[in-house]
Amino acid sequence: MIDNKKMVEIMQAIAKRMEKEKEFLTELDNAIGDGDHGINLARGFAAVEQKLPQLADKDLGAILKGVGMALVSNVGGASGPLYGTAFMKAGGALKGETDIDAEKFAAAFEAGVDGIKMRGKAHEGEKTMLDAQCPALKALKEALAAGKDLKTAMGEAVAAAKDGVAYTKTIIATKGRASYLGERSIGHEDPGAMSSLMMLEEITRVL
Amino acid sequence: MVGIVIVSHSKKLAEGVVEIARMMAAEAPLAAAGGLDDGGLGTSFERIAAAVEEVDQGDGVGVLMDMGSAVMTTEMVCEALDETRIRMLDAPLVEGAVLAAVEAQMGTSLDDIAAKIGEAREVHKIAADA
Ligand SMILES: Nc1ncnc2c1ncn2[C@@H]1O[C@H](COP(=O)(O)OP(=O)(O)O)[C@@H](O)[C@H]1O
Ligand SMILES: [Mg+2]
Predict the structure, then answer these.
(1) Which of these, A7, A30, A73, lies nearest to A194 by C-alpha position?
(2) How do the residues of chain B divide into helix, strand and coil, expressed in percent and rounded to 5?
(3) CA-CA distance, B24 to B27, in Å (whole number)?
(4) Which end of chain B lies in a sparser environment, N or C, as judged by fewer CB atoms within 10 Å?
(5) Ion ligand 2 nearby residues (CB, 5 A)
């Protein structure tokens, strides 16, 4: 269902989207951080795009690990090691795989989310990217368990991530730079939750 | 000698901290891993890994970090390399760097530097009981 060609397509779509949303994500980060999230991710995924031709013929695990490595060396901000760990752990779950089904996709997504929790020493409810990703993962797993196909299930994951982004607007940041603002972080969407939503949208579109 | 790496979002800050540590320990192997390849602010896995290689004389490497992604990215470098060879040192950047560099120059082992680094956290700049 997802082979290396599809995976490369997904990464290209994410790279394009990050470039397109560079300013918007940076504006969100301006409000509660240091105003670089969009710049960081656009730079990181530009490096990913450059590396993709070397990765294209490899198995899915190797592609995702390569993507993760490019991010950790080029994003620069906290989202670098966080997304970098997520892609590398997802790659670890897909070691040697060349074509995966919905179950394996969900397992890789879960490994990625667990990686972010481990790296960020974070959990849901702290106004981070996890507030988009955890509900999305839960929705994906529930939809698959109910017998829905991957694209439909990912549609539900995207909807859950959207609600998650909206939720970040209502809570205080306790992780990352935004935590320095305390109460003043309320009323703003978390940039990392927003970029996570965008990545999930791109994956779903390409599927 | 144990090597010491200073990781910061800023190239200038990392180099400046190395400069200050060198005043006290000119012989110690010190390297700065600050900023990104394009000179921008941020931390890079490859730059940290390269700095670790640069100062590794076989006695291990201690790494001091500023904050956020500097810590998380260094953690990833530690996971990728042999964990007995490289340790993250938890201390204020400047005080920690001076302490670690002086100890490294005296031939203190990486384990002992890691145990001692906590002292740098206890240094008060203004007397607490005054
Ligand atoms: N400890 C953490 N755990 C999970 N997510 C985090 C953590 N710290 C930061 N983030 C996420 O990273 C985003 C900020 O990314 P970015 O601006 O690229 O890095 P930086 O904060 O270093 O400038 C935040 O919006 C948040 O979603
Ligand atoms: Mg930022």
Answers:
(1) A30
(2) 45, 15, 40
(3) 9
(4) C
(5) A 29, 33-34, 36-37, 77
A29 contacts A168 by C-beta, under 8 angstroms:
no
Residues in chain B: 130
Looking at residue B129, what is its pLDDT? 62
Task: Judge if ipTM > 0.90.
Answer: yes
Say how many domains are in chain A.
1
Interval A158-184: pLDDT, tens: 999 999 999 999 999 999 999 999 999
Closest CA in chain B for residue A72: B45
CATH assignment of the domain containing A43: 1.25.40.340
Q: Is B124 a catalytic residue?
A: no
Choose among B42, B75, B76: nearest Cβ to A76: B42
Three state DSSP letters for B44-74 = CHHHHHHHHHHHCCCCCEEEEECCCHHHHHH
The ligand 1 site (C-beta within 6 Å) comprises A 29, 33-34, 36-37, 40, 77-79, 82, 116, 120, 122, 128-130, 175-177, 190-193; B 68-69
State which residues form the domain around A122.
2-206
Q: State pTM to two decimals.
A: 0.95
Q: Give residue limits of the domains in chain B.
A: 3-122
Mean pLDDT throughout B64-82? 95
DSSP state of A156: H
B3-122 CATH pick, 3.40.50.2300, 3.30.420.270, 3.40.50.1820, 3.40.50.510: 3.40.50.510
The strand ranges marked E within A94-198 are 99-100
Nearest atom in ligand 1 to the alpha carbon of residue B9 is 22
The rounded Å distance from CA A74 to ligand 1 centre is 15
